[in-house]
Amino acid sequence: MESIDSTWSEQEQVIAKHAFDVAYEREVFALVRLVSEKANTLVEIEDVWQLHDFLSARRHEIDGKYDYRYSILPFVFAQLVQQGWLRLEELEGLAPEKLAKIVALTRMSY
Amino acid sequence: MESIDSTWSEQEQVIAKHAFDVAYEREVFALVRLVSEKANTLVEIEDVWQLHDFLSARRHEIDGKYDYRYSILPFVFAQLVQQGWLRLEELEGLAPEKLAKIVALTRMSY
Question: Which ipTM value was assigned to this complex?
């Protein structure tokens, strides 16, 4: 028997993909802007290496976070809501059980 | 018996250290400026990841290149001269054998 989370209707898949893409676009847009700002303050080589460390960490985090597998999407969405990249309203149309799970997960800390 | 390269007089040590530091300052100053310029052209996230790749490569190269061990300094200086971060005249005062070796090494490709 499949769990409720492993079945996503076509409509849910469209909603999920859109929400996922929107959150990604917001986060990377903010990152591009932040890096541009940081880069305007570079004076010494240590500032450059700090920027490198920052980019290494952000890249690793973003690569790991945006994982579009239906089995883990509720966790992904909960984290994106927690971090402010997605609003719960943008997930409206998902099955109530999925939304309830996502809401519950947003109350947990990672 | 020690090779000529393993013996550096006090005067040679001062000249070598100064030349090494000057080349390093030039290279990292140029890098800080280049990164600032690149950062002003960031538009998409791919630009940011390209900047990250660029910094990873440059950091690895610089960390490896500026190795202040007397046994390998002639190779370090030859490479710095080849790459334009140091002028041969800035090594004047080193023993003629060392200078000859550095000049010979500058004619080799790495």
Answer: 0.85
